[in-house]
Design a protein that fits this description.
Layout (H helix, E strand, L loop, with lengths): L23 E8 L8 H17 L14 H9 L3 E7 L1 H8 L4 E4 L4 E4 L3 E2 L5 H4 L23 E4 L7 H18 L2 H9 L5 E4 L2 H8 L5 E3 L11 E6 L7
Parallel strand pairs: 1-2, 6-7
Antiparallel strand pairs: 1-4, 1-5, 3-4, 6-9, 8-9
Helix pairs in contact: 1-5
EC number: 3.1.1.29
Enzyme class: hydrolase
GO molecular function: hydrolase activity
């Protein structure tokens, strides 16, 4: 894809003073009931789709008289670091979180609710009291091979991340891909329901992926892993070279 096709809201090819802007966070809450927690890969993929649904929702878009109710918050958030925090809820906690403005996205069994951005120190009380820890999820079996014709968010095979951390990183990867796509490719992805896979890359292929020109998530190092670590490569077919 040529740089002329890159949307103006993409920071991928352009430096910006993102640390100097007021910092906002995109909250995501994953439903984890004791009796039936979701599979790890299902939760990761659902979180990534939730971010895309929020980015493309009409309430997040527009300017002036056509501005959606979340549009200014979304701009403020995207002007700074694209922080995401994943918390868990069940039972009454989930019901209270679901009553707040936001969007619930479902996967095979996973449920993730994404909320409009909040200031770093201004979380709603219903979300602030939810736990970040305890999102350790497992896959009952190895995930199937991803569809080569659909987007794949490749995870760094050398990093051990909790499910919550990996959900946030998958969301980052989906967002970088979204920023890089043309309007036509965004429309096609949205109308298809945002199909995507999240998989751990083969160790032998990881370095090639990071050097392929595809969007790469580099973590700020606030939690779990070292600053600057490459966590995800966003492999969307429309962004592949050649």
């Amino acid at each position: 894809m040529s740089t002329q096709d890159t949307p103006s809201d993409s920071p991928f090819h352009h430096e910006s003073p993102r640390d100097e802007a007021p910092q906002f966070v995109l909250p995501l809450v994953v439903r984890i009931e004791k009796a039936g927690p979701p599979a790890r890969t299902d939760a990761l993929e659902t979180a990534a789709r939730a971010v895309l649904v929020m980015l493309s929702d009409e309430r997040s878009l527009g300017e002036g008289d056509d501005e959606g109710e979340w549009a200014q918050l979304m701009r403020d958030w995207q002007d700074a670091r694209i922080r995401k925090v994943v918390r868990r809820a069940r039972g009454a906690e989930w019901r209270k979180a679901s009553a707040l403005p936001g969007i619930t996205v479902t996967g095979k069994a996973a449920e993730v609710r994404v909320f409009p951005p909040v200031p770093l120190d201004g979380w709603p009380k219903e979300l602030a009291k939810l736990q970040v820890s305890g999102t350790d999820l497992d896959d009952p079996a190895d995930p199937d091979a991803p569809d080569p014709l659909a987007p794949v968010l490749w995870l760094n095979p050398d990093l051990g991340m909790s499910a919550g951390k990996a959900m946030a990183q998958a969301g980052h990867g989906a967002q970088l891909a979204w920023w890089e796509l043309s309007d036509a490719d965004r429309k096609a992805w949205r109308e298809a329901g945002f199909p995507l896979s999240v998989r751990t890359a083969d160790p032998a292929a990881w370095r090639e992926l990071t050097l392929s020109g595809l969007p790469v998530v580099r973590d700020a190092g606030f939690t779990e892993i070292a600053p600057g670590s490459c966590t995800v490569v966003a492999d969307h077919p429309a962004l592949r070279a050649g």
